Hints:
It is a single chain. The protein has helices at 2-40, 63-69, 120-126, 177-183, 383-389, and strands at residues 43-49, 52-58, 79-81, 93-97, 100-106, 109-115, 136-137, 150-154, 157-163, 166-172, 193-194, 207-211, 213-224, 228-237, 241-245, 250-261, 264-277, 282-289, 307-315, 340-342, 353-356, 360-366, 375-379, 392-398. The chain is of the alpha+beta class.
Amino acid sequence: xxxxxxxxxxxxxxxxxxxxxxxxxxxxxxxxxxxxxxxxxxxxxxxxxxxxxxxxxxxxxxxxxxxxxxxxxxxxxxxxxxxxxxxxxxxxxxxxxxxxxxxxxxxxxxxxxxxxxxxxxxxxxxxxxxxxxxxxxxxxxxxxxxxxxxxxxxxxxxxxxxxxxxxxxxxxxxxxxxxxxxxxxxxxxxxxxxxxxxxxxxxxxxxxxxxxxxxxxxxxxxxxxxxxxxxxxxxxxxxxxxxxxxxxxxxxxxxxxxxxxxxxxxxxxxxxxxxxxxxxxxxxxxxxxxxxxxxxxxxxxxxxxxxxxxxxxxxxxxxxxxxxxxxxxxxxxxxxxxxxxxxxxxxxxxxxxxxxxxxxxxxxxxxxxxxxxxxxxxxxxxxxxxxxxxxxxxxxxxxx
Length: 400
C-alpha cells in the first residue's frame, strides 16, 4: 500500500507540473502575441522637436495626444505643424518649435514677446516694430538671438546741422552732441567751436551749430596821406591860396591778423607796420594882402599907365545868386559909391587900381565865370543902371 501510495503521489505531482508548464506557456504565448499585435498596430511618425528629429511609433490618435504622451507641454505661443487636432497617420512628420521670451527695448521702453522666430528682423516684425535704415539696433537684423538676449532699438529722428555756412537736415538717434558730431564725421579745427554743449543729449528738431573760425595773417600796402603846410604870403590877396609844392602820398606796409567766422571777417587787428615810402608835405601859400576899395572922386587918373580897350558890361551886388562879397573880400553892398570891376586875373591881377573910360577910377576886386580875356564887368547899384550901361567897348588904363 505504501508503494501504491507513493506511486500515485509521484504521478499526481508530475501531472501538476506539466499542467503548470502548459499554463505558463499559454500565458507567455498570449503575452508575446499581444505584444507583437500591439506593436504591430502602432503608427510610425517623425517628431522634430526644436530641431532634434526622432522616429516614434505610437497609438496616439492626434498630434496633441502624441506630444502629451511624450511629456511635451505645448503653450499657445509654440508653433506645431500640423495642428494639434491633426489625426496621426503613418509617416507623418510633426514639427514643434518652442516659443522663447524675448525682451525688446525701444528708446528705453521695455516690452516682451513670446515668439518662435529666431532672427532679429523677424522678431521685430512680429512685434510690429518698424525699423528704418537710420535706426540703431543692438544686433544685426539677420542675427539669431536666444531667449536670454535683449534687442535694443533706438529710433532715429531728424534735426538740423549747421556747419559753417552749410545747412542740412540729418537723421540721428538720441545721443550726445559730441557723439553726434563724431557719427557725422565733423572734424573741428583749432579755432572752430560748437555752440551746443558737447554732453547735451540731442532731441528731435534740435539745431547743432558748428562755427568755423579762421585766423589768417594779411600783409597789405596802404597809402599814407601827406601833411599840408600853410605859409602866409603878403603878395596874395587875403583869402587866396596858391600851391607852392604839391604833396605826395606815402606808402606803409601793414600786417593784420584777421579773424573770420564762417568766412566773414569779424575782427581785424593791426600787428605791425613799416613805412615803405615817406609822404611829401604839400606847401600852400595863403594870401594876407588886404585890398581897400576907394571911393571915386573924379573921372581922370592922376598918373599914366598901360592902356588898352576892353568890352565892358555891368552888374549889381544884388544880382540873383550874388553873395554881396567880391572874390577879393570887398563888401560890395557897403557903400553906393564903390568903384569895383570884375576882371580876368590872368590879364589884370586882383587888387590892381585902374581907370575905366566912362566909369572912373576903380579897383580890380572881383571875378566872374564869363569874364575872360579883354572883358570886364563894372559894379553899379541898380538893375536900371546896369541896363543903361549895356555892353560897350571902353578904354582902360592901369594905374599901378
